[in-house]
Structure formats: C-alpha cells, structure tokens
Amino acid sequence: MMSSCWGAALGAAVSVPVLLLVAAPYIRRYVAGGQCKSTAKLEGKVVIITGANTGIGKETARDLARRGARVIVACRDIAKAEAAASEIRAETGNQQVIVKKLDLADTKSIREFAEKFLAEEKELHILINNAGVMLCPYSKTADGFEMHLGVNHLGHFLLTFLLLERLKQSAPARIVNVSSLAHHGGRIRFHDLHGEKSYNRGLAYCHSKLANVLFTRELARRLQGTKVTANALHPGSVHSELVRHSFVMMWLWKIFSFFLKTPWEGAQTSVYCAVAEELDSVSGQYFSDCQPAYVSPRGRDDETAKKLWSVSCELLGIQWD
Ligand SMILES: NC(=O)c1ccc[n+]([C@@H]2O[C@H](COP(=O)([O-])OP(=O)(O)OC[C@H]3O[C@@H](n4cnc5c(N)ncnc54)[C@H](OP(=O)(O)O)[C@@H]3O)[C@@H](O)[C@H]2O)c1
C-alpha cells in the first residue's frame, strides 16, 4: 500500500513538470495574444506617444519608428526618455525619434508641450495617449486633480484638445487611447471625482480607465466626417512598470511574469489601432488582442460620456464644442 502511494507521488512529481514543459510554448502563445499583421509603412508621418520611455509605450515607439515614422517620445523623465530614444534610434536606424518634455500631472507642462510641438511640427498623423499611472497612494496633480483621473484622463483630454486642429489638418489621422479591461470595474463618481470623500487606489485606476473609454466614444462621435478617428484599447496584462506603486503587485508580476504579456506583445493592439489599413474609417471602438472587444455597459453610456466631457472642460477651463 505504502509503496503504491510512493509510486503515485513519484509519478506525479515527474509527470507534472514534464506536462508543464510540453505545454509551456502553447501557454506562452495563448498569453501573447493577438499580433498586428499590418506591414504599413509610416514614412513622412508624425506620431506622438505619451509615456514612451518604458513598457508598452516604448515598444509602440520602437515599432512605429521601424515603420519610418517621425516619433515624438513625450515623457516627464527626460533622461529615461533619452535613453529609450537612443536605443530605438540605434536599433531601427531611424534618427527621427525625438524626446519632448511632457508631464501629464501638470496642465502647464501639457500646454508648453503642445505650444512647442505646434510651433515646430507642421503635421500630426497619430496621437497615442498611452501614459498611465496605477495604484498610486492618494495624491493630486499640480492642478489639484486626483492623480489617476488627472494623468490618465484629464491630462490626455487636454493634450488631445490642444492638438486636435493639427490632427484635422493632417487627416487622415488617428487618436489611440490606451485604456484597460479595468474599465469594467470603474464608474464616474461625479459627486466625488477627486476621491476626497472616499478613495481606493485600485478603483481610482478603474474609474480613470472608464473615463478613457467614454472620452473615446464621445470624441469619435464629435469627429464624424473629419477623417480623424479615435479608438480605445486594452493592451492585455503586461509585464511593465505599471505596478511600481504596489510592493505586492510588483512581486506577483515578477512571479507570474510567464503568464503576462511582454511589453512588445502588449504594444501590438496599440500598433494595430495606429496603422491597420482595415481601421481607416473605424472610430469609437474598443479593441483587445487586435480585434474588437466587449465594452462594459457603463462604457457605452452616452449620457455619462457627454456629462464627463463637459465636466472635464470645466475642470480644465477650456471650451470644446
Ligand atoms: N501593464 C498592464 O498590464 C496594463 C494593462 C491595461 C492597461 N495598461 C495601460 O497601458 C498604458 C501603459 O502602461 P505600461 O504598462 O506600459 O506602464 P509603465 O511601464 O508604468 O509606463 C507608463 C508610462 O507612463 C508614464 N507616465 C506616468 N505618469 C506620467 C505623467 N504624469 N506624465 C507623463 N508620463 C507619465 C511613465 O513615465 P515614467 O517612467 O517617467 O514614470 C511611463 O512612461 C497605461 O495607460 C496603462 O494604464 C497597462
């Protein structure tokens, strides 16, 4: 009896790792998700990618640089951005990878970035609103906005507003908003947008990602007939620096990295939304793994989208009709 137990245990001890080894490539292929198959070239096209000094943004920049675009790497940390840009320039041979200072947690910085960009560049064909923060301890931006809402939504809302005329003049043009599956857990808490009454950092992230989806929806509606499209996406669960504010998440991300997308894999849907020929006239949609994905009912609520738009304008002191 004892020996058969030992035999079974030994059998399991040998067969489980063997099974895992055999299955590993299939698991990795599944985790990697969709891949952008487009071979579109981007010579003569100007692209802005926010938060492109690391993670998904950096891989998106690398891909678009390889396609020949002039890529503006818009980042708050210039030294880190220069290191990323020079790596991309060296690898792709594209010298048109340019670093510009942009801190989305400060509307003054956003305005300065846009002013300089509009003075220096005559065209803008692709704007990728990629930068993001997650799980921040309670904090506010320079303008007093809750950090997730301020950086992930309001910062990109203002940036898009300031650059929209240039996008329209350069049309066909695309706006790509990097949202998240986490939008499913979000709601727009108009009565407490800045989390002053209650704050949960996980939920704050979800709310801001829902705001990305609603912004995209309303923006696309307003852009009908302009040849400027706006789409949102979920990149997948990606092994990046996004979890930097949570010690526990950082360890979980390390331990389970095998089951997470690499930043390159995570960039595929952003690249797809930016270049895929079949999306030329597709707008207001939400993608994941390079295909349309399910949007939560709250993300399809046009009334909330309109209200969020006008509240965002009020907070930023802009008029955007
Ligand atoms: N990773 C995932 O599993 C996942 C899943 C769903 C959605 N997303 C979304 O994907 C996007 C990219 O995230 P990631 O995973 O690549 O994370 P990441 O590696 O942390 O990159 C985030 C980027 O945003 C920049 N950023 C943060 N705050 C900024 C600010 N105030 N001004 C300008 N730039 C700022 C960061 O710059 P610094 O390096 O200077 O801080 C960094 O370049 C985010 O919008 C995120 O919500 C990620």
Report on the architecture of this protein.
This protein is of the alpha/beta class and 321 residues long. The chain has a single domain (40-316), classed as Rossmann fold, CATH 3.40.50.720. 48% of the residues lie in helices and 12% in strands. The chain contains nine helices and eight strands. It has an eight-stranded mixed sheet, sandwiched between helices. Strand 4, helix 5 and strand 5 (173-178) form a beta-alpha-beta unit. Helix 6 crosses helix 9 (302-316). It is globular. The termini are far apart. The model has no long low-confidence stretch (mean pLDDT 96).
Cofactors and ligands present? NADP nicotinamide-adenine-dinucleotide phosphate
- For this structure, the CATH topology is Rossmann fold
Order of helices and strands: HEHEHEHEHEHEHHEEH
**How would a textbook summarize the main sheet?**
8 strands, mixed
Low-confidence stretches: none
CATH C-level label: Alpha Beta
Beta percentage is 5-15%
* Spatial arrangement of strands, main beta sheet: 3-2-1-4-5-6-7-8
Task: Estimate the helix proportion, in percent.
Answer: 40-55%
Quickly count the domains: 1
Number of helices: 9
Mean pLDDT: 96
Number of strands: 8
CATH superfamily: NAD(P)-binding Rossmann-like Domain
Based on CA inertia axes, which overall geometry fits?
Answer: globular
